Amino acid sequence: MDISVSDYGVGAAVGNDLVATSPTVRGAAGEALPDPDALALLLAEHAVRPAATADGRAPSAGDVRDVQLLRREVRGILETETGEQAVAGGIVLLKRAGQSPVLRRDGDGWEWYVPTAPDAPLAAELAALVAVGLLGTVRALGHDRFRPCAAPDCRGVFADTSRAGRRRYCMPDLCGNRLNVANHRARLRAGGVPR
Ligand SMILES: [Zn+2]
User: Fold this and answer.
1) Contact status, residue 48 vs residue 41, Cβ threshold 8 Å
2) C-alpha 75 – ligand 1 centre gap (Å)
3) Average confidence score pLDDT of the chain
4) If you measure from the C-alpha of residue 150 to the centroid of ligand 1, how many angstroms do you get, rounded to a whole number?
5) Which terminus of the chain, N or C, has less C-beta within 10 A?
6) Is residue 194 included in any domain, yes or no?
7) What is the CATH number of the domain that holds 99?
8) 3-class SS at 59?
9) Euclidean distance between CA atoms 16 and 157, whole angstroms
10) What percentage of the chain reaches a pLDDT higher than 90?
11) Could you tell me how many helices (H) and strands (E) the chain has, helices first?
12) How far is the CA of 173 from the centre of ligand 1 (A)?
Protein backbone atom coordinates (compact mmCIF):
# COMPACT_ATOMS: atom_id res chain seq x y z
CA MET A 1 0.00 0.00 0.00
CA ASP A 2 1.30 3.45 -0.88
CA ILE A 3 0.53 6.06 1.79
CA SER A 4 0.29 9.66 0.66
CA VAL A 5 2.27 11.95 2.94
CA SER A 6 0.28 15.07 2.03
CA ASP A 7 -3.06 13.31 2.64
CA TYR A 8 -2.16 12.72 6.28
CA GLY A 9 -5.78 13.39 7.27
CA VAL A 10 -6.76 9.92 6.03
CA GLY A 11 -4.47 8.13 8.48
CA ALA A 12 -5.47 10.46 11.30
CA ALA A 13 -9.16 9.75 10.64
CA VAL A 14 -8.51 5.99 10.63
CA GLY A 15 -6.63 6.38 13.93
CA ASN A 16 -9.47 8.38 15.45
CA ASP A 17 -12.14 5.91 14.38
CA LEU A 18 -10.00 2.97 15.46
CA VAL A 19 -9.54 4.37 18.97
CA ALA A 20 -13.28 5.06 19.17
CA THR A 21 -14.07 1.35 18.64
CA SER A 22 -12.52 0.32 21.96
CA PRO A 23 -14.54 -0.82 24.97
CA THR A 24 -12.65 1.89 26.91
CA VAL A 25 -14.49 4.51 24.86
CA ARG A 26 -17.71 2.63 24.14
CA GLY A 27 -18.38 1.78 27.77
CA ALA A 28 -21.42 -0.45 28.15
CA ALA A 29 -21.79 -0.78 24.38
CA GLY A 30 -18.54 -2.79 24.41
CA GLU A 31 -16.15 -3.77 21.65
CA ALA A 32 -16.99 -2.15 18.30
CA LEU A 33 -14.25 -4.00 16.42
CA PRO A 34 -15.20 -7.56 17.33
CA ASP A 35 -14.57 -9.46 14.08
CA PRO A 36 -13.12 -9.40 10.55
CA ASP A 37 -16.34 -7.95 9.10
CA ALA A 38 -16.13 -4.93 11.40
CA LEU A 39 -12.49 -4.42 10.42
CA ALA A 40 -13.32 -4.70 6.70
CA LEU A 41 -16.07 -2.11 7.21
CA LEU A 42 -13.71 0.31 8.98
CA LEU A 43 -11.26 0.04 6.08
CA ALA A 44 -14.01 0.49 3.48
CA GLU A 45 -15.39 3.56 5.25
CA HIS A 46 -12.03 5.26 4.75
CA ALA A 47 -11.38 3.76 1.30
CA VAL A 48 -8.21 2.16 2.70
CA ARG A 49 -6.96 -0.74 0.61
CA PRO A 50 -4.10 -2.56 2.35
CA ALA A 51 -2.04 -4.90 0.18
CA ALA A 52 -2.86 -7.65 2.70
CA THR A 53 -6.49 -7.52 1.54
CA ALA A 54 -5.77 -7.26 -2.19
CA ASP A 55 -7.46 -9.72 -4.57
CA GLY A 56 -10.54 -9.93 -2.37
CA ARG A 57 -8.72 -11.41 0.63
CA ALA A 58 -10.67 -10.73 3.82
CA PRO A 59 -9.07 -9.75 7.14
CA SER A 60 -8.59 -12.70 9.50
CA ALA A 61 -9.40 -13.09 13.20
CA GLY A 62 -5.65 -12.73 13.81
CA ASP A 63 -5.66 -9.41 11.96
CA VAL A 64 -8.47 -8.23 14.24
CA ARG A 65 -6.47 -9.13 17.35
CA ASP A 66 -3.39 -7.34 16.00
CA VAL A 67 -5.40 -4.24 15.09
CA GLN A 68 -6.95 -4.20 18.57
CA LEU A 69 -3.40 -4.15 19.98
CA LEU A 70 -2.46 -1.40 17.53
CA ARG A 71 -5.47 0.54 18.79
CA ARG A 72 -3.95 0.69 22.25
CA GLU A 73 -0.70 2.04 20.83
CA VAL A 74 -2.50 4.67 18.79
CA ARG A 75 -4.36 5.75 21.89
CA GLY A 76 -1.04 6.02 23.72
CA ILE A 77 0.27 8.39 21.06
CA LEU A 78 -2.87 10.55 21.24
CA GLU A 79 -2.38 10.73 25.02
CA THR A 80 1.28 11.83 24.90
CA GLU A 81 2.16 14.99 26.77
CA THR A 82 4.69 16.41 24.31
CA GLY A 83 5.19 16.56 20.57
CA GLU A 84 8.52 14.76 20.99
CA GLN A 85 6.83 11.81 22.70
CA ALA A 86 4.15 11.69 20.01
CA VAL A 87 6.71 11.72 17.21
CA ALA A 88 8.79 9.01 18.88
CA GLY A 89 5.67 6.83 19.17
CA GLY A 90 4.65 7.57 15.59
CA ILE A 91 8.07 6.57 14.27
CA VAL A 92 7.80 3.21 16.06
CA LEU A 93 4.51 2.51 14.26
CA LEU A 94 5.81 3.84 10.96
CA LYS A 95 8.82 1.51 10.98
CA ARG A 96 6.69 -1.59 11.35
CA ALA A 97 5.94 -1.67 7.62
CA GLY A 98 6.91 1.74 6.22
CA GLN A 99 9.74 1.86 3.69
CA SER A 100 11.77 4.79 2.42
CA PRO A 101 9.57 7.56 1.01
CA VAL A 102 9.35 7.83 -2.76
CA LEU A 103 8.46 10.78 -4.95
CA ARG A 104 5.86 9.87 -7.56
CA ARG A 105 4.19 11.62 -10.45
CA ASP A 106 0.72 12.70 -9.37
CA GLY A 107 -1.10 14.48 -12.18
CA ASP A 108 1.03 17.44 -13.17
CA GLY A 109 3.07 17.45 -9.99
CA TRP A 110 4.95 15.17 -7.63
CA GLU A 111 3.88 13.70 -4.32
CA TRP A 112 5.67 11.93 -1.46
CA TYR A 113 4.46 8.45 -0.68
CA VAL A 114 5.47 5.97 2.01
CA PRO A 115 5.26 2.47 0.52
CA THR A 116 4.70 -0.43 2.91
CA ALA A 117 6.77 -3.62 2.79
CA PRO A 118 5.32 -6.07 0.22
CA ASP A 119 4.35 -8.87 2.59
CA ALA A 120 3.57 -6.75 5.64
CA PRO A 121 0.69 -7.96 7.82
CA LEU A 122 -2.49 -5.89 7.71
CA ALA A 123 -1.96 -4.40 11.19
CA ALA A 124 1.57 -3.28 10.24
CA GLU A 125 0.25 -1.55 7.11
CA LEU A 126 -2.40 0.17 9.21
CA ALA A 127 0.24 1.14 11.78
CA ALA A 128 2.18 2.92 9.03
CA LEU A 129 -0.94 4.61 7.71
CA VAL A 130 -1.99 5.91 11.13
CA ALA A 131 1.60 6.94 11.86
CA VAL A 132 1.76 9.06 8.70
CA GLY A 133 -1.58 10.56 9.80
CA LEU A 134 -0.49 11.43 13.33
CA LEU A 135 3.01 12.57 12.39
CA GLY A 136 1.52 14.72 9.63
CA THR A 137 -0.90 16.23 12.13
CA VAL A 138 1.92 17.17 14.50
CA ARG A 139 3.97 18.63 11.65
CA ALA A 140 1.18 20.62 10.00
CA LEU A 141 -1.05 21.57 12.93
CA GLY A 142 0.83 20.95 16.16
CA HIS A 143 0.68 18.45 19.01
CA ASP A 144 -2.09 20.39 20.77
CA ARG A 145 -4.44 18.96 18.14
CA PHE A 146 -4.33 15.68 20.11
CA ARG A 147 -7.18 16.04 22.57
CA PRO A 148 -9.49 14.27 24.96
CA CYS A 149 -13.18 14.20 24.04
CA ALA A 150 -15.16 17.03 25.67
CA ALA A 151 -18.23 14.91 26.38
CA PRO A 152 -18.81 14.08 30.05
CA ASP A 153 -17.98 10.45 30.89
CA CYS A 154 -16.38 9.85 27.49
CA ARG A 155 -12.82 8.55 27.59
CA GLY A 156 -12.26 9.17 23.89
CA VAL A 157 -9.18 10.88 22.48
CA PHE A 158 -8.67 12.12 18.93
CA ALA A 159 -6.52 14.12 16.54
CA ASP A 160 -8.30 17.24 15.30
CA THR A 161 -7.32 17.74 11.66
CA SER A 162 -10.06 20.26 10.92
CA ARG A 163 -8.96 23.56 9.46
CA ALA A 164 -10.41 25.63 12.30
CA GLY A 165 -9.22 23.21 14.99
CA ARG A 166 -12.39 23.41 17.04
CA ARG A 167 -13.41 19.78 17.06
CA ARG A 168 -14.53 18.75 20.54
CA TYR A 169 -15.79 15.18 20.35
CA CYS A 170 -14.26 11.86 19.45
CA MET A 171 -17.54 10.74 17.87
CA PRO A 172 -19.33 13.98 16.96
CA ASP A 173 -22.78 12.41 16.45
CA LEU A 174 -22.71 10.36 19.62
CA CYS A 175 -20.68 12.47 22.07
CA GLY A 176 -22.26 15.79 21.05
CA ASN A 177 -25.62 14.33 22.02
CA ARG A 178 -24.22 12.94 25.25
CA LEU A 179 -23.28 16.48 26.22
CA ASN A 180 -26.75 17.79 25.34
CA VAL A 181 -28.34 15.12 27.53
CA ALA A 182 -26.00 15.97 30.42
CA ASN A 183 -26.74 19.69 30.11
CA HIS A 184 -30.45 18.97 30.00
CA ARG A 185 -30.22 16.91 33.21
CA ALA A 186 -28.12 19.59 34.88
CA ARG A 187 -30.72 22.22 34.06
CA LEU A 188 -33.47 20.00 35.46
CA ARG A 189 -31.50 19.49 38.67
CA ALA A 190 -30.94 23.25 38.92
CA GLY A 191 -34.68 23.77 38.58
CA GLY A 192 -34.28 25.47 35.23
CA VAL A 193 -36.72 25.18 32.40
CA PRO A 194 -35.70 22.36 30.07
CA ARG A 195 -35.19 23.52 26.51
ZN1 LIG B 1 -16.30 11.05 22.90
Assistant:
1) no
2) 13
3) 94
4) 7
5) C
6) no
7) 1.10.3300.10
8) coil
9) 7
10) 84
11) 7, 5
12) 9
